[in-house]
Specification:
By secondary structure, the protein is mainly α. It has helices at 6-25, 29-54, 63-73, 86-101, 106-113, 117-132. α1 (6-25) runs antiparallel to α2, α4 packs antiparallel against α5 and α4 (86-101) crosses α6. The radius of gyration is 18 Å and the shape is flat.
């Protein structure tokens, strides 16, 4: 299990959670219940792996995290106002729309991407406007 990347585990967890929520919304509670232990196991694997990597220091005390925190606090307005590239924003927005059309709640989508619920709703509404044209 040590050779599985944390990103892959997180992506797999999100995919299984999406499948579970889609099954629930489609009325297949039995299928959703079958996916529940898989979600729990993946969450446990992620938690175990996180504890191994953070050790006793904790995430907030790690030097890499401190460097990133310091860099984000030192950002000035003169620097590029667009923190994300347009490609990554487009990819994220496609994922938001896909998760919403799969039946995932806006609060869960917002939590997955670290954005506000209003931003999720705006992306979905814009996508719906684009589809109506």
């Amino acid at each position: 299990m040590d050779k599985i990347s944390p990103t892959l585990l997180n992506d797999t967890l999100k995919l299984v959670q999406l499948a579970r929520e889609t099954a629930r919304l489609q009325g297949s509670n039995q299928q959703a219940e079958k996916l529940e232990p898989v979600v729990e196991k993946l969450q446990n694997l992620i938690n175990d792996q996180t504890q191994k990597t953070t050790g006793s220091q904790g995430l907030l005390q790690q030097s890499d995290f401190q460097i990133m925190l310091q860099a984000s606090q030192n950002k000035t307005v003169e620097q590029s106002p667009r923190a994300e590239s347009s490609t990554s924003v487009e990819d994220r927005n496609r994922m938001v729309v896909a998760m919403a059309s799969g039946g995932m709640a806006d609060v869960d989508i917002a939590r997955q991407f670290g954005i506000t619920r209003d931003e999720v709703r705006m992306v979905i509404n814009l996508a719906n406007l684009g589809n109506k044209r």
